[in-house]
Amino acid sequence: VCTQLLEATFTLSNPSGTSIVDAPYIITDSAGSTVQSGTVSVQAGGSATLTVTGIAGTLTLSVSGVVTATSTVECIPPTATPTPTPPPTEVAAQVTGTGICTAEGVVTFTLNNPGGTVVEQAYIVTNAAGTVLATGTVTIPAGGSATITVSGTPGTVTLTIPGLALSISTVCAEPPEELPCGYWEMDADGFPVFYYNTAACEPESLERVWEPITIGGASCPAWSVYHTFRTGDWELFRLGEIPGKPDAPENLSQAINPDWHDINPSRSPDNEWIAYASNRSGTWNIWVARTDGSEQRQATFNERSISVDPVWSPDGRFIAYESDKLGNWEIFLFDVTQRNSPEVRLTDNRALDVNPYWSPDSKKIIFESLRDGIRNIYELDIETLDVTRLSDGQGVDRFPQYSNKGDKIAFVTEREGRTTGQIAIMNADGSDVQLISDPNGDASAIAWSPNDELIAYQMRLGTDIGIYVYELATGITRRVTDTQSLNTSPTWICESTTLLFTSNAPGNADIYSTNALPITAPPIDVKLEGSQLTDHPQTDRDPQNTPSEEDASTRKSRDPKRQ
C-alpha cells in the first residue's frame, strides 16, 4: 500500500511454521529500474515490512524463494482539493513554469496559472541522483503565480507535479571556490604567478629565528643567475664560476622536488649570498643561501600567507620584500646582520603595496601602490617611514627602478587610456616625465645599464617580442634582436654594455648574450649572431646580473585574478 505521500509499504506475512531467513529481494519502479534491494527475514507465523519513500508511480517487490514472489503497489501522491479543480488534462494545458538557480545554490521555481480556476497540487523536488529535496502542496491562484524555493545542490534540480504531468528542471553550477588572500598558480608558460584577494586577508602573527650574517664590500660578479626547469621544478642556477670555487655546484637553491619552486633572486652586494622566494616550506617564504649552494636558510616563517620578491639593500644590511602576512599586500624588511631581528612593516595601507626597489644609498625605497585608487609610484623614507607620491597621476605607473646614481627613475606606464605599457623616465623627485618607448608596443622588464647611459627593456610589437635599448644622451632606440625569435628579460653584465636575455631561437628558451652597442646597429639574428650561453631541452629563462635583483619574471604577478 501507499500509506503516505510517496511512501510505499510492502507487508510480508509468513503463516508457515518455518522462518524465512535472508531472502533476497528487489523493488523496481515502472521503468524497471531498481530503487531498493537487499535481504529480508520473516519469522514463522510472523510478518515483516519494507518501505520505499520518494518514488511516484508503480512499485513492484520481488522476493526470491517464497511462494508469492511478487507484489505491486501504485504510489500516487494524494491531491489536496480544498476547492474544486479542473480536470488534470485541462490544468496541464494551462499551468507553465520556470526554474532558476542563484549563485548561493537556492533554486526558485515559478508556476504560472493563466486559467480562471485555482490550482492546488502536490509536488516533489529532486536532484540528479533522485534524492528528494522537498515535497508539499502548492496553490496557484487563478490568473496568478506561485513560487517554490529550495536549497539545491550542484547539478540538475527538478520539480515534478504528478497531477499536472508537469516537470521543470534547472541546473545549479558548482559554487565558486573561495580564494585566499594571497594565492598562486602556474601561468601559460608553467611559471608561478601570484594574485591577491584582500577580502579574504587576515593577519598572521609569526616568530622569526635568524642567525646573523656579515656582508662584505660591494663588487660586481663574473657570474649570473637564471631560472631553469631542468630539474623538474623551478630552480636558480649560476651561469659562470665563482672565483676560487671552480667545483661549486651551479644549482644555488638546491631544492630538487617537483612541488618546490625557487624564484625571484636578489644578490647580496658582496656576491656571497642570494635571497629568493621558495614554497619548499609549504607556502611561499623568503630564503637565503650562499652563492655556492650551501647554507640554505629560511628567513621568513609564514604558515598560510605569502612572502615573495626579496630585494637586498645596496649596503647589504637589509632585505625588503612584499607579503600579505598582516592581511594585505605590504612591504616589509628585516636586518640580516642581527640575530632574530624582527620583520619591520614599512607600508601600512589597505591598498596593495608591491615591487620595492632600493635607492643606491639604502635610505629610500620606491614601490607601486593602489592607495590613491590607481597604481602609482611612491617613495618611502626608511628612517621616518614617510611616504611621498612621485607619480604625476596621468596614468598607471608600475615597476619603478632607480638609476645606479639614484638621480632618475625608470618605470612602466599606461597612459591616454592605453592598457599596454610604455617605458618612461623621470627625475628622482617625480618631475620631468619622458616617454621613451614606442606607444604602439607593450613594453616591460626594465634594466638600467651599469653606467646609467642605456636602458634595456623588452617590448611586444604586433606579434613580435624583442629586446630594445634606449640611449639617454641621444634619444636613439635600437632594436637589438630580430623578429625570427621571441626574446625577453634583459639584464646587463656588470661594468659592460653586454646584455643577457632569454631567447627561443634554438626552439626552446635558453640564455643568450650580445652587445647593446653600437646604438645604430641593426638587429641581430639571435640564432646566428647571438652567443648561446645555455643549451638544455628544458626552459632556461629570466637571467639576472645587473641590476642585482630580477624583476622580469614578476611582471604579471600581484594582479587581482580576472575571472
TrEMBL record:
Compositionally biased spans, kind Basic and acidic residues: 552-563
Region described as Disordered: spans on this chain: 526-563
UniProt xrefs under InterPro entries: 6-blade_b-propeller_TolB-like, WD40
Family: Belongs to the TolB family.
The name this protein goes by in its record: BIG2 domain-containing protein
Species of provenance: Candidatus Thermofonsia Clade 1 bacterium
